[in-house]
Design brief:
5-stranded antiparallel sheet; single chain
């Protein structure tokens, strides 16, 4: 019985085990599913638009586009020939390579400006050291009376013995255009003299003002400087007097001019100003001035490399003046440049007193030495007492030899037959140089005005200034022949339409390869106003007034 129970127990356990295994094999119930949570997709990046453009005169390396926030984009601006890059609109950077970080929609434009290209006639290297060339290097047109009165003349109060309303006005000879600050742009420099409203004839009573308009045909930034004296400026001469590569401006002066009453001009006689030295205006981070040479009175001024040593010298020639009741008797001299605005002066020795209203340095015989042209009266001389000047009917060409010495034994009298044949006495106001006939030599232009002596010449009849006579002397193997009649149409005006002008420039005004004669520095204080665009067109060796 006991064995039977044991067997039964074993069989029961085996059955349970077998059933259990069978049940596990037949269970088809799927296991519980596990659902994975998906990772969220990153947000789309913020994008911004970059717009890039180029102004006239250049290109940019990209036009921009759409970029993700924070993207850095580098843009390069490239100027066209004849232009320069000047900056960006939309950025303060002055580099032509600009990196922009996009944190918003951005627009930038590359800005360009046309480079100044001189219209001046070109000459031998020695002649391009002269003030004549340096003055017209940046010249394109003369200033009209409207421009002068609007942009240069100043209305102000003078503080002195009494508060007087005065107008500072600029005479034609007291304006010049050059690049005085070295940025290759046209700067206008002018000296303005005082006219008291209550006594307008007594001009130059108060100290003068220096007016500089930087980039006068572009952004036109004006600077006004009070000068320490009343200057009667007779010439603004342009040259690099300190060899720093930047043009300076020298003021030649006739400061005793108002000391003496002029019957023909009905002015003067109310001051006792001493003669002054030439003054150089120069740029050294700011505008500065320095006096050089010997004090005296002059009606003109000239400069160039007289001694061929690579720096700029100048020549001074006197005009009559009076101080403390005595005549100023300054002798003509050459000022040799010793560097750093130091000059040693050497007198030009002549046996007689010799005054001049215009004189200039220029190599007219192509020997690489600067010659000196000096003159006052042109045409017949009558009723004057000016020493050696009375013997001359035209300017004198004194040939130079590079030593700085000028000797009358090596000189030529320039005969002006146009005036002597017509019995017209003129004063020489300015000189110009050109190779108008393209034969390889230098021809001479004279700017003159009819200036008959007291008792003959008057403003009212236009026989004392307020007129012009333009003279052309053709260089024929060293002989200068007056060809005014044959070569210049409209060479004079004496009917009150055009005032006299003190300078002439030779520039290619119409870009045709020929060089025109353009007047400059008009005498605009009278009632005659200079026309807006007077010049003589060079039509293949003939000059036609336009």
């Amino acid at each position: 019985m006991k064995k039977l129970f044991s067997l039964s127990t074993i069989l029961l356990i085996a059955f349970v085990f077998i059933y259990s295994c069978s049940t596990e094999e037949e269970d088809t119930t799927p296991p519980p599913s596990v659902v994975a949570t998906p990772e969220p997709e990153p947000p789309a990046p913020t994008q911004y638009t970059l717009t890039v453009s180029a102004g006239e005169g250049g290109t940019v390396s990209t036009e921009g586009g759409t970029f993700d926030e924070g993207t850095e984009v580098t843009i390069t601006a490239t100027p066209d020939e004849g232009y320069e890059f000047i900056g960006w609109e939309g950025s303060n950077s002055d580099s032509n390579s600009l990196t922009v970080t996009l944190n918003g929609n951005t627009s930038v434009q590359a800005l360009f400006e046309a480079l100044f290209i001189s219209k001046s006639e070109r000459f031998l290297e020695i002649n391009e050291t002269t003030g004549y060339y340096k003055i017209q290097e940046f010249f394109t047109e003369y200033q009209t009376q409207d421009y002068i009165s609007t942009n240069i003349d100043i209305l102000d109060w003078a503080r002195g013995e009494n508060d007087d309303l005065i107008q500072y006005r600029t005479f034609g000879k007291s304006i010049v255009v050059t690049d005085i600050d070295g940025d290759s742009k046209q700067d206008l420099i002018a000296v303005a003299n005082s006219f008291c409203i209550n006594h307008p004839d007594d001009y130059s009573y108060h100290p003068s003002k220096l007016v500089i308009i930087h980039d006068y045909k572009g952004f036109a930034t004006k600077e006004i400087i009070n000068l320490n004296a009343s200057y009667t400026v007779t010439k603004l001469e342009v040259n690099d007097f300190n060899s720093d590569g930047i043009s300076d401006v020298m003021m030649f002066k006739h400061d005793t001019y108002k000391n003496t009453l002029s019957e023909q001009e009905s002015a003067g006689g109310f001051t006792n100003n001493p003669p002054g030295k030439p003054t150089i205006i120069y740029y050294d981070n700011l505008i500065k001035t320095v006096d050089v040479g010997i004090a005296g009175d002059s009606h003109y001024g000239t400069s160039g490399d007289v001694d061929n040593d690579g720096d700029i010298d100048f020549v001074y020639w006197p005009i009559p003046g009076e101080y403390n009741g005595e005549p100023t008797l300054t002798k003509p001299y050459v000022a040799i440049n010793n560097g750093n605005f130091n000059f040693s002066t050497e007198e030009i020795v002549f046996s007689e007193r010799w005054n001049a209203t215009a004189y200039d340095l220029f190599d007219v015989n192509n020997d690489n030495f600067l010659d000196l042209i000096v003159g006052w009266r042109v045409g017949p001389v009558r009723g004057n007492d000016d020493g050696y000047t009375n013997l001359l009917t035209g300017p004198v060409l004194i040939l130079g030899d590079g030593s700085g010495n000028f000797n009358l034994n090596n000189s030529i009298l320039l005969n002006v037959t146009y005036l002597t044949d017509r019995d017209i006495q003129c004063s020489l106001l300015g000189l110009g140089y050109t190779d108008f006939d393209k034969d390889g030599d230098i021809d001479i232009i004279l700017s003159t005005t009819r200036a008959e002596p007291t008792g003959i010449g008057t403003f009212e009849e236009f026989t004392y200034y307020d007129n012009y006579y333009l003279i052309l002397l053709e260089n024929n193997n060293g002989n200068f022949i007056d060809v005014t009649d044959e070569k210049i149409d409209g060479s004079f005006n004496q009917n009150g339409e055009v005032s006299n002008f003190y300078m002439v420039r030779t520039i290619d005004k119409d870009d045709d390869g020929n060089f025109e004669i353009v007047p400059d520095n008009f005498a605009q204080w009278g009632t005659i106003i200079a026309p807006s665009n007077l010049y003589w067109e060079n039509t293949g060796g003939q000059f036609i007034r336009r």
